[in-house]
Write a structure and sequence with these properties.
The protein contains 3 helices and 9 strands, in the order H-E-H-E-E-E-E-H-E-E-E-E. By secondary structure, the protein is an alpha+beta fold.
């Protein structure tokens, strides 16, 4: 019985340590965020291992951004409407799957592939999901099933 109670407690503790809600990030992180996204609202910070993640509203879009402890920007993901998706990306997404497009995010990164779209699919009466990463020109980067 003790093992059953201790295991959920340890799991909860591990999750709490790896992802902490914080009310404010360090000054360097805050400064970079405020410079990049002035006038943001509904700002919520989390610490994920060694980086800071912030969820916020900017330019009427829900966004998530990640910053290093030193204040360097890592990436931003912006939730966008289907009507905002470039034609090449939408064509590739529809050609790839007959499932319904559930959500699209525009991703910008400081390193590597610097911009792409994440398309999430779902299928009625199914708990399965598909995710596709597509470059702005419609090239499929990666499919996650």
């Amino acid at each position: 019985m003790k093992k059953i109670l201790i295991t959920p407690l340890l799991l909860t503790l591990a999750l709490a340590i790896s992802c902490d809600d914080v009310h404010k990030a360090p000054n360097k992180v805050q400064d970079t965020f405020e410079t990049m996204f002035p006038g943001s609202t509904r700002v919520e910070w989390e610490k994920e291992l060694s980086v800071y993640k912030v969820e916020f509203i900017h330019d009427e879009h829900e966004k998530d951004a990640w910053f290093s402890r030193g204040g360097n920007w890592i990436q931003t993901r912006t939730s966008i409407l289907l009507s905002e998706v470039p034609d090449a990306v939408l064509a590739a997404a529809r050609e790839y799957s007959d499932w319904d497009i559930d959500d699209v995010e525009y991703c910008e990164k400081a390193e590597g592939v610097q911009e792409y779209y994440i398309v999430e699919y779902d299928k009625e009466y199914s708990e399965k999901e598909k995710t596709l990463r597509i470059l702005p020109d419609g090239t499929i980067l990666k499919a996650l099933l």
